[in-house]
Task: inverse folding
């Protein structure tokens, strides 16, 4: 009887160990939904990169700097360097709106009481591509368009915005340039 129990445990262990497949975990090397890369330039010297001081970025449907992508998982924007940022676009809608605030007071936790604010509307089409069971779908954004709204007085600090790459399918280059 003891021998049958050991054989059963051995067979059970082998089956459960072999049941896990390699694609149950999404490898970091696999490209998933890309972030939008934005670079900042000096309006007077358009070839010179410029770092915006005390920049904060907030989604219009959020009260904090955590960005709602529509996927249920909040994402914080990532600052690659002092003159470029990476922000997510919504995967469940064709419009994402952000408030970019320059010179945000360090004590202003929502960036609504200080600084110069401009709202940027990103519109795009979405293309879903199935990767595998672990990674699910990758969303690429096509036909990116940008509109700046500074309120009744026009843009506050953003003087020009250009789309460098209208299709966002990787994070290898900047997609948008902001001049201020």
Result:
């Amino acid at each position: 009887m003891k021998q049958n129990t050991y054989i059963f445990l051995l067979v059970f262990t082998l089956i459960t160990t072999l049941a896990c497949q390699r694609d149950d975990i999404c490898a970091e090397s696999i490209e998933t939904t890309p972030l939008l890369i934005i670079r900042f330039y000096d309006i007077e010297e358009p070839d010179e990169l410029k770092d915006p001081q005390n920049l904060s970025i907030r989604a219009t449907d959020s009260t904090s700097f955590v960005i709602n992508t529509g996927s249920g998982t909040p994402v914080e924007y990532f600052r690659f360097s002092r003159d470029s940022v990476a922000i997510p676009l919504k995967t469940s809608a064709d419009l994402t709106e952000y408030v970019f605030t320059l010179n945000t007071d360090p004590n202003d936790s929502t960036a609504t009481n200080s600084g110069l604010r401009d709202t940027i509307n990103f519109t795009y089409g979405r293309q879903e591509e199935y990767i595998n069971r672990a990674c699910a779908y990758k969303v690429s954004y096509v036909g990116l368009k940008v509109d700046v709204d500074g309120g009744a007085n026009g843009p506050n600090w953003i003087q020009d915005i250009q789309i460098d790459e209208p299709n966002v399918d990787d994070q290898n280059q900047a997609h948008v340039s902001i001049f201020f």
